[in-house]
Amino acid sequence: MIRYLTAGESHGPALAGIIDGLPAGMAVDVDAINRRLKARQGGHGRSARMAIESDAVEFVAGLRGGLTLGSPIGLLIRNRDFENVRTLMDPLTGSGPPITRPRPGHADYAGALKYRHRDLRNVLERASARETAMRVALGELCRQYLAVFGVTVAGYVLQIGDVQAQDQIDLPDTKSIDDSAVRCPDATTSADMVRRIEQARADGDTLGGVFELKAMGMPVGIGSNRQPSDRLDSQISAAVSSIQTVKSVDVGERIGSGDYVGSTSHDSFEIADDGISRATNRAGGIEGGMSNGQTVVVRARVKPIATLMKPLPSVDLAAMTAAPATIVRSDICAVPAASIIGEAMLCIALAQAMAEKYGGDSVEEVAEHFASSQRGAQRVFDKGP
Ligand code: EPS
Fold this sequence. Notes:
Blueprint: E1 3-7, E2 14-20, H1 30-41, H2 49-52, E3 57-61, E4 63-64, E5 67-68, E6 73-78, H3 86-89, H4 108-115, H5 121-127, H6 132-146, E7 152-160, E8 163-164, H7 174-179, H8 187-203, E9 209-216, E10 220-223, H9 232-241, E11 246-251, E12 270-272, E13 275-277, E14 286-287, E15 290-292, E16 296-302, E17 313-316, E18 321-324, H10 335-358, H11 363-378
Antiparallel strand pairs: 1-2, 2-6, 3-6, 4-5, 7-8, 7-9, 9-16, 10-15, 11-16, 12-13, 14-15, 17-18
Helix pairs in contact: 1-6, 1-10, 4-5, 6-10, 9-10
Bound molecules: ligand EPS.
């Protein structure tokens, strides 16, 4: 079983993570993790914080000589900005003037009431999407585990504000995603999205959007129809919707398109030379809570960032008077970063589900379990039903 935890405040000394359950003997590519951390910091519309940070992971447990030991892996990502705000955020001595005007759409208000904090900073520090840097590091470790099964994951942006890319991006091309300032593989739409972000900046506003994730090379039978919580689509939805700005997750291509007609929503079976084939993948690679061998397709809708430079009406909770919401440094648009985090969360959810089926104590054992399961699956219909 693969489990993980993160800890850390946005402006505290560091983000910490633990992942337990990865097999022994896995070669960890630290540069690949750091490249993803850099990508998460990028994307047009990110805040000035990104010029302060230069995220890089440090391993403090679970690795020796670049190989996993099979023990829990401990990671750190230091917050450079901590040195600039030490008097506010020092774990033992930190204090400062309270923030008292909650931002509509942020965790400020609900968190203050829940934890009985009179300073909203005590809520927003943990609620900040800064925490997702650690998820990206953990997700990249899971991506490296998925490589044992030949599964690859890609993510890209389909919509920012009202600017939308074409609906079908068949084979995501990593170079065109990386080359885009907003991680949208369509260059013309990318340029329109950048212009839209600049308009939002001028308006003192923020933008949400949509990103899509694909997992390619999926074997059949990951996840299960046995229990509600075993279903692969429920696990993926839970993982992706746990990202701070994500408000909804679609699995498959058809459901969000609006016609709700059975004959145009499913994927017919055909006999092909090498077995069964399907001309469409509307189900997004999951049927009955189990992977069906097709590409897993997930779409996530991201709300606009809650910190507006032209703030929404709020109240001062200390004075109980009407007041505009607090303004803190923030992003105008974080949809490109959200797509990177989405990839990480999909990698984590898939790694957890793969470990359930093929798990083992060492990479060799996992590979053996996988190979024998694949051979068995090919023989299912050899003798007829
Ligand atoms: C973020 C770091 C934060 C914000 C953003 C995400 O940095 P700071 O608060 O120092 O400007 O840029 O956080 C939010 C959008 C939020 O609502 O809290 C990051 O590293 O992703």
